[in-house]
Amino acid sequence: MRVVVSGGSGFLGSHLCEALLDRGDSVCCLDNFSSGRSANIAHLLREPGFDCTACDVTVPFRSSGDVDAVVHLASPASPFDYGRLPLQTLATGSRGTENLLRLAVRHNARFVLASTSEVYGDPQVHPQDEDYWGNVNPIGPRSVYDEAKRFAEALSMAYRRSQSADVGIVRIFNTYGPRMRAQDGRVVSSFISQALEEEPLTVFGDGSQTRSFCYVDDMVRGLLAMIDSDLPGPFNLGNPTERTVRELAELVLSITGSGSELRFLPLPADDPARRRPVITRAHQGLGWHPRVPLEEGLRHTVDWFLSQPDTHVRPRER
Ligand code: NAD
Ligand code: UDP
Fold it and tell me: What is one cellular component GO term in this UniProt entry (predicted)?
């Protein structure tokens, strides 16, 4: 298969590109490097089946070769990134999604949309299954991301209904692992980098809000299963083990052996109070379920952060 991966130099995208190449597929990565890094894919550029085009998916893209699948991962993804790129986030979710849907239709290719648990907003139903329609503030600071993804889902389903496009939607819950940027503002990368630097861990609110964290390898298996399927979904992909943010902070401190304190800061506007996926549908439809426990995934992630030259850990603590 030849697979177009938008956002392929980002955190999830680079792992997906690697997994596709490992199983013998060719990959065409499209990225504008707004939150992705060339270092994430530098090792892939040597592979004969891999190419990367620096471009913005809000501009139509024509492929010179065949396309069997399009996976649309391009989007600012952390609250910090979509906060600094609000208009680009909306444009990537709307125009970008339409451009890639058109590409898929032209080539009769499978189209997989990376949607998000954020379509559920601050959920009033717990845990969240795919039949829940969500509780999103349409004008709040998170709305540029939430509504862009909700629009992208609506557009994808319209293409499926009106153009017979082979569209599949996955709703990704908080995912972590190697290649997260230390400065992306997400909770796992922030806590690990703060702990390793012996700086205070910035807990927003009282830390009682919950998330359910999925290790990147599990997420990539889910994405591959969705590429290979012809089902529309939507499927929740995430690890249903739920933790409070405070529990996460304490776990990171114990894994890193850090003496950092917790610093409590104001909770950002519209921050969801709780989030946990029901994954029965993905299990039944894709045969998928996550395997990596949080403690194990965090150890791999901490090891990766320690291996990075820009991690300023005092030698004694390495
Ligand atoms: P990321 O920021 O590491 O990757 C996104 C990539 O998209 C980056 O390489 C960025 O440069 C690229 N990009 C952004 N806008 C673009 C544009 N207009 N044109 C071309 N490239 C563009 O984020 P990630 O965590 O890897 O997320 C990947 C996808 O998965 C996103 O769509 C995100 O919404 C979704 N998702 C991720 C999570 C998570 O926890 N990681 C959770 C839910 C959904
Ligand atoms: N969070 C925190 N400290 C940080 C970054 C985030 O306490 O330095 C909290 C944030 O308020 C949210 C949770 O951790 O409740 C997850 O935040 P993240 O940005 O990782 O993902 P999202 O809000 O998109 O789920």
Answer: cytoplasm
